Amino acid sequence: MRTGTLLGLLFAAKSYRFPEEESIYYCNSEMRWPDVPPRQDGSGAELERVLVFARHGTRMPWAERTCWIGDETRYKCSTRAFQGFTNSPSGRRSPGFTRIRGKRGVLAGGSCVLGQLVHSGVQMHVANGEQLGAAYKAALGLGEIPSEPEVMFRSTDVPRVYQSAEALAVGMFPKIMDVDPSNLTIIIPDRQSDPMTPSATVCPRLKNALSEFHDAPGAERRAKQTSAERAVLGRITGRSEEFNTNETRDMLNIYDSLFDCMTTHVCSTVPSEPKDVPSGLGPSGPVFKHVEQEGLFWFINRYGHSDKMRKLAFGPFIGDLLEDLTVRDRRLSVFLGHDTGPAISIMDTMQLTWMDSGNECAKTWPPFGAM
């Protein structure tokens, strides 16, 4: 009897997975993270500042591609973006035109633009804002309308990212909807000079460091070790010619693009139908998780390959972060970006781990709406 109980406990221990180990953790299916736990230290210390690093919410596929032969998935988007200007001496403020894609769309379904933020992505960041407001707004002494220098929002120059920042702001500061946009600000640097994600234009030495990484024996060995897997993936998807290579520089596009294909098909948070994927590529099988791990390695974890690489990839943003910390009267700084940064810049550099599992945070692909 004791033996049977022990075996049962061992089996349960082996079969249990922490949330970040689940195949569809990336999808953020609940669209809301657990609430911030209350303080229990009893120290009486007062909160002075909060830094928030987040990834944009759920989006459409970011590139035009054939995921696999026979793919009939269609996408439907209810959320729209609008374009506008403010403070122009001649026109003052635009009416804010709603964007439609016209006849030049790429995605099947007729209503979605490549990479656009979708309804569930908005929901994720409204929820994030609500949770931040409940946990920190009173503690930081923030008012109902965010303003510099107390509150700083920063985003990359990508619509789905600054729209995610807007959704988070709505959740945290609901009365923001009654304010003229000309009185609200968000920092969005030019793409060529923005270090929120690793950039060889911001840090030219990063280009040579990446070349050294791809030419290193370890990278070449990893590519060769997964060649049999890519042969199988090529047959499953009908993309054998593309996958039949051991060139290390091709690994990023192979695995990252395939993982994007799989997640935008199976994730409940992505408005796509049908949710079918070829046999063997579903989230219940081992291939799904392995494609994610390889994509994560070649796309994101390469920047944490060495201290030198971290310095070149993450150093410029960390410099900006340290500068932000010197701003007097700043209470809340919100940085909205991508899976490649800025959150990963902090997690990888500081070698952060999950408190319950002990897993390295940087070894998990940041899910949609991560915060």
TrEMBL record:
Lyase recorded as keyword: no
Q: Does the keyword S-adenosyl-L-methionine apply?
A: no
User: This protein's superkingdom?
Assistant: Eukaryota
User: Pfam families this protein is in?
Assistant: His_Phos_2
The record ties this protein, via SUPFAM superfamilies, to: Phosphoglycerate mutase-like
**Xref: PANTHER family:** 2-PHOSPHOXYLOSE PHOSPHATASE 1 (PTHR11567:SF110), ACID PHOSPHATASE-RELATED (PTHR11567)
Family statement: Belongs to the histidine acid phosphatase family.
Q: Which GO terms describe its molecular function?
A: phosphatase activity
Keywords carried by this UniProt record: Hydrolase
Q: Which InterPro entries match?
A: His_Pase_clade-2, His_PPase_superfam, Histidine_acid_phosphatase
Protein name in the entry? Lysophosphatidic acid phosphatase type 6
